[in-house]
Amino acid sequence: MRKIDEIICDLKNEKKYLGETINNRTMNNIPIGDMPEQYKECERLIEILSAEREGRLAVLNDIPDDARIKILETIERIKNEGSGGLICILL
């Protein structure tokens, strides 16, 4: 399983790519579809995982190891396989 730092790094790269793509398409009058929502979702996941990593949230520390692993795997899968749809994770 990947570490939180690696997932955060990937999400930051994805956020940067989305931001650049949105700007380029906007300047060239090309539809941007659901990219703004994907960008915001990246920001939210980065914020949640950063807070967890820094111990400010500590949500993942309060749940069993197997559940924590599943949540991190799910976040990674969302990042890798996400189709830009609405994502809801209930803790």
What letter string, H or E per element, gives the SSE order?
HHH
Q: What's the tally of helices?
A: 3
Helix content: 55-70%
Q: Tell me, briefly, the overall form.
A: elongated
**Total number of strands:** 0
Main beta sheet, described?
Answer: none
Low-confidence stretches: none
Distance between the termini: 20 Å
Structural Rg? 15 Å
Q: What percentage of amino acids are in beta strands?
A: under 5%
**How confident is the prediction overall: mean pLDDT?**
77
> How many separate structural domains?
1
Structural class: mainly alpha
What would your notes on this structure say?
The structure is a single chain. The chain is mainly α and 91 residues long. It has one domain (4-81). It is built from 3 helices and no strands. It has helices spanning 4-27, 35-53, 65-81. The protein is elongated, with a radius of gyration of 15 Å.
